[in-house]
Structure formats: C-alpha cells, structure tokens
C-alpha cells in the first residue's frame, strides 16, 4: 500500500541583491559596444570608425557608465 505524502512548499521572498543601500545614481555600469562591418564595400569603409566614435561618445557622455 502506498501512503500519500503531503508536499511542503516554502516560499522564499526575492531579495534585491543589487541595491544594498547604494543609490542608483551612484552606481557605475561597465558598458561595452559591439562594432562591426559585414562587407568590404567602399560605402562601408568608414563605418567601423564611425561606430567606434559614436559608441565611445555615447558611453562617455553618460556619468553612470564606464567604458569596459
């Protein structure tokens, strides 16, 4: 004879491990950009450099971001 066992479920409340008293505006995020050129067409020759310049400026202009 099989005796049914009552399962016990414990609910563990979530904890915000990323916000232990640090104000969000004081956190600095390490950010990286992915730049690439898919073809060797003449039209895209400066594309890679333009992407690097754009994302470098974008990341450096945000005080909460640091270029990784």
Automatic annotation (TrEMBL):
It comes from Tissierella pigra. This is Recombinase family protein. GO terms for molecular function: DNA binding; DNA strand exchange activity.
């Amino acid at each position: 004879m099989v005796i049914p066992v009552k399962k016990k479920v414990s609910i563990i409340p979530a904890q915000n491990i990323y916000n232990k008293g640090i104000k969000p505006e004081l956190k600095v995020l390490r950010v990286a950009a992915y730049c690439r050129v898919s073809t060797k067409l003449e039209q895209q020759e400066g594309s890679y450099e333009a992407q690097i310049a754009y994302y470098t400026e974008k990341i450096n202009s945000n005080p909460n971001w640091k270029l990784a």
